[in-house]
Specification:
Blueprint: E1 2-4, E2 11-13, E3 18-19, E4 29-30, E5 37-40, E6 47-48, H1 52-74, H2 80-100, H3 102-106, E7 109-114
Parallel strand pairs: 1-7
Antiparallel strand pairs: 1-2, 3-4, 4-5, 5-7, 6-7
Helix pairs in contact: 1-2
Length: 116
């Protein structure tokens, strides 16, 4: 898991975060790049992607997933062929994401905010 500093916009692994309590801060941690006191934000408030193409990939992937779910929900009767068709489309997305956007798929980046 990585953090992105809200001040310097640099990404760093969570293990590199400096304990703020040892430095006299009661809340949050320090950015190892710029030394500012920050705290993490929940994932649902801010998504951090490594590039715009990565963001587009995940939007298209979620769109396909949503359409496949609707297809399976409203198909009558559901047969194994329906599941094969839906999953056959997900496999190329996952392979492409693994090759091209592994940083975002396996090591999510969490945004931060200033400590008030």
């Amino acid at each position: 898991m990585n953090y992105q500093c809200c001040y310097c916009k640099e990404e760093f692994p969570a293990i590199e975060a400096i304990d703020g309590y040892k430095e006299g801060y009661k809340i949050g941690f320090l950015c190892p790049k710029c030394g500012k006191n920050i705290q993490d934000t929940p994932m649902n408030e801010e998504w951090v992607f490594s590039s715009d193409s990565s963001k587009v990939f995940f939007v298209i992937f979620m769109g396909y997933f949503f359409l496949a779910w609707i297809f399976l929900e409203f198909s009558e009767p559901i047969t194994p062929a329906h599941y094969i068709i839906a999953l056959a489309g997900l496999v190329p997305f996952l392979i492409y994401g693994h090759i091209k956007h592994a940083k975002d798929m396996y090591s999510p980046t969490i945004g931060t905010k200033p400590v008030k």
